[in-house]
Amino acid sequence: MNYGHLVVGPPGAGKTVYCTAAVSFMRKIKRPAVIINLDSANEHLEVSYKPYWDIRSIITMEKVMEDEGLGPNGAMVFCMEHLEKNLGALLAAIRELKGGAFLIFDLPGQTELYTVHNSLVAILHRLEKELKLQLCVVHLVDGSQCLDPAKLVSASLTSLCGMVNFELPWLNVYSKADLCSFDEDDLRDDDRFDPERCIDMLNRTESYGPFRDFNEGVRDLLAEFSLVAFTPLCSRDDKSIASLIQTADGRIGYIPGLLGETDRDPLSIAQDMASGLYEPPEEEVSVEDQVLEQLKGIVRPM
Ligand SMILES: Nc1nc2c(ncn2[C@@H]2O[C@H](COP(=O)(O)OP(=O)(O)OP(=O)(O)O)[C@@H](O)[C@H]2O)c(=O)[nH]1
Ligand SMILES: [Mg+2]
């Protein structure tokens, strides 16, 4: 059984930063983790992370735009369709991780790829089936959107669409929580999005008030599924990262220790780390390099 996170969300939501921070934290708790980059426009990755496998090794958005005369969105769809038809390289790379590793997939910001287009969904279903991969979708939305009821409703509907299409465990997260200040008029209610309160706020606005029936229809839809809730994340804080990893672990049935790390829960280690009670290992070799060395038959303790 393989486990991982699929990190999705609109452009600039903080997906790449989250992937980098999550892998770095997992390394600190000795959980072997690798990033798989599925964003064909993700240039300059060397400044954030070193992917274990990169879609850009088989196709890039810039080249498709040039060769096919497509704009960025069309080229991104083309790249995903290309990956769907040529999935062998990715499947083989994951199969080579014989000791197992936690897989973190960095995705592009085009939400159409999972709300209206089928290739990404088909790719994931194949990975799930052929690799027994258990994935939790981490859906990031910029925290500033959670302060605007109209944007929050829009993000919630996008999220609902993704949940229905992917049929995978799903976590809604508002990112950059360190930049958000909340007061009692804000939408956060025990860190959970409350559609009823949000729609009430919309009904009271000049722009959205005239659409009361529609707003209430949306409210009933969100309430009926009762799936849409947002939790905060600050990717610069190990405790926040640990808390998210722990919640996602619960959703996919991952038990700490399965990949050889300590069996303590991530949040308690992060708390000990903050108070100096836990020293992360001095890691000179990156996880990607460790995995590559393992593949070469050189066994290193993870
Ligand atoms: N303050 C703060 N800034 C953040 C946080 N996470 C991400 N950012 C910033 O948000 C910006 C976008 O982050 P990325 O990780 O590149 O966003 P992305 O979702 O990968 O963007 P695309 O790949 O273009 O869709 C960068 O300037 C980050 O430094 C956070 O937790 N706190
Ligand atoms: Mg990115």
UniProtKB/TrEMBL annotation:
Any matching Pfam family: ATP_bind_1
InterPro entries, sorted: Gpn, P-loop_NTPase
SUPFAM superfamilies: P-loop containing nucleoside triphosphate hydrolases
Keywords assigned by UniProt, alphabetized: ATP-binding, GTP-binding, Hydrolase, Nucleotide-binding
Tagged with keyword Magnesium: no
One Gene Ontology cellular component: cytoplasm
Recorded GO MF terms: ATP binding; GTP binding; GTPase activity
Function: Small GTPase required for proper localization of RNA polymerase II and III (RNAPII and RNAPIII). May act at an RNAP assembly step prior to nuclear import.
Family: Belongs to the GPN-loop GTPase family.
Assembly with partners or alone: Binds to RNA polymerase II (RNAPII).
Name of protein: GPN-loop GTPase 2
